[in-house]
């Protein structure tokens, strides 16, 4: 961590945090253009390794993070009866609580996962905030501040990724590609009497472009690296940024999505807040033309409308390989045709 500069937006890979061999580390001053460039460049050499990162000194105030985390903790502390009326499996509800699984599909072996999740649409704030829980009292106010700050961080990050990938258009991800309603999972994992029997969230890759996760002080998140699960040790006030499956597809596999899961523990409850940066539902998504070369790097995936992706994700229950299989191009198809269909903006 010695290379992190004061007041810098700095990123380190999971592996560095976990004291495994260090693979990449970068830092930047938010106000300095040169420093911005150095972070952007870091995506190049590190790009295939950087599917999840810790970001510190990110510019989102501690008061904003803690303010919302406390409000969300209060929400889960409300009496059962107050929360029960929000329990629903209806995806169309503006906000709801559900227990257990990530998708509507259960595992074949009917495992129950040790999680309550408050799921809501959190950005754009002005349009959505009247739909959020009105209790506890300050919940909406804190969520509004948090959602705006995290969205700005995501916007900045996406610009750096575009720059780091060498795209001429640094706004590549702006517009429809990241302009869907941002979803939020507020995950609450109660103390689990026997963590060997179940997990909080099963292994999955997130479906969206990017997830910005505040995991609080209690560990539980694990990421798959070279076939092994490694613990992502929380860092005070840091965010974990994970690439989702749609980022993997847009970059034609160059920025792979990270498979992750959450384990429980018997000593402490844990709460995490995941903000999921999402394309518009009617946006066409596919490998970016700037990533492709007809001979050396043909498209590996078909393009799709975002809503089709949701169906595939549900059917594959979030499993990375199974979701990607839906969209993989098997080599009988002519890459040039697929290329022509691509129209992101
Ligand atoms: C999620 C998720 C991990 C965590 O909400 O998609 O993976 O640490 N959460 O709670
Ligand atoms: Ni996830």
From TrEMBL:
Residues 179-279 form the Fe2OG dioxygenase domain. InterPro entries: DIOX_N, IPNS-like_FE2OG_OXY, IPNS-like_sf, Oxoglu/Fe-dep_dioxygenase_dom, Plant_2OG-oxidoreductases. Keywords: Iron, Metal-binding, Oxidoreductase. GO terms for molecular function: metal ion binding; oxidoreductase activity. It comes from the Eukaryota. Signal peptide: none annotated. Gene3D superfamilies: B-lactam Antibiotic, Isopenicillin N Synthase, Chain. It holds the Pfam family 2OG-FeII_Oxy. Belongs to the iron/ascorbate-dependent oxidoreductase family. This is Fe2OG dioxygenase domain-containing protein. It comes from Lolium multiflorum (Italian ryegrass).
